Fold:
Amino acid sequence: MRPPRRFISMMALALSASVWPSAPSVATHHLISPGERWETLAEKIKPGDELILMPGKHRAARFDTIVGEADAPVIVRSADPANPAVIHAERYGIEIGHARHVQIRDLSITGATINGVRLGSTASGDDEKTRSRIVHLANLKITKTGRKGQRHAVYVEHTDRLTIEGLVIESWAGSGIEIVGCTEVRIEGCTLRGDSDPTPAAGIRVRGGSDRVRIDKCELTDTGDQGIAIGGLTKLDAFDPPLDPAAEAGSLTEASRVHVSRCVIRNGLCAVSFVNAERSSVSNCTLLRPRRTVLSIRRDQTDPRFASVRNCTFGSNLIVWEPGDLASLGHIGPATDDATVYLEENLWWSSDLAEAAADLGAFPGEEQFAQLTELDPALDDTLKPTVASAELFGAHAP
Structure:
């Protein structure tokens, strides 16, 4: 006997439901009006969603977790990039404890007392639950962060595959960008302008065991104590994964494989620092009018498990200052007798260099090539050398 047609159709429907997967959920555009408490959307956010801030003044927001997917990132952005939404921050502007496949872009953040943007968790343990991964910050303007102390405009810790590009950062107390315990980081095309109130501590600082970081084509002005610091002084319990108590002497670093290129650093007390760093470099940068010293080589970590500074290079840079700007060409900190910073060819220029050479001291590091000191690069308004033999040095080199 043949089964009834109704029975056949019902069986076909059930079979198709078991064979074909259900359709993926549709991404949602969450339109956020000025003044709305948009952090209440936390439990609704799913991969592919966009949090779109409409033009106007917005509240700060904190999220414990935002997780997207490789082909469906979660995006936080302004509705109109030409008219960015403005987040009037409180302690933080945007804070995300655990972020994966997240983009934050085209926003203005002002007035944070601690951090304009804070990403990453201080927790350690299960990597899948604690480390953030694949985060992209782009076209943000962050202003007026902190009044004093270590208050960073952008603070990112324990994050892998981080991209920061096109940020404009003005007036901060700690670092403009502070990178702690991160890997595979790219910072590109950012503009940082410090202020005297508050006076910043650094422009960009990379520390806490960070590895594989590239800083390229950034402009930093009036950055306080340090323009770019490769390494720093991190509390030992803040490293992730936790430090091995049995690690061999000299086996740990604050920063490794950090490469700075084609940046312009103006003013500030010290242009560049290597601090408990290894296998890092500063090349083709223009360092204009540092007010105390050009290059600092330090061992701030006194724990014997940490190396001093080793296998770092400083080359093809253009350093220009006015008479009376500098106290010394370099600063060498205590307990750095074993430090290795190799000086490739650099161009150093001030009109009084010959007369002041004895007071300025030796070049910092081991000279692998002779340093050029008698060539005026005659910089134009864009800081590009107008003398042909100087064109291979600095941020504008071909």
Observations:
- The domain at 35-243+251-390 is CATH 2.160.20.10 (Pectate Lyase C-like).
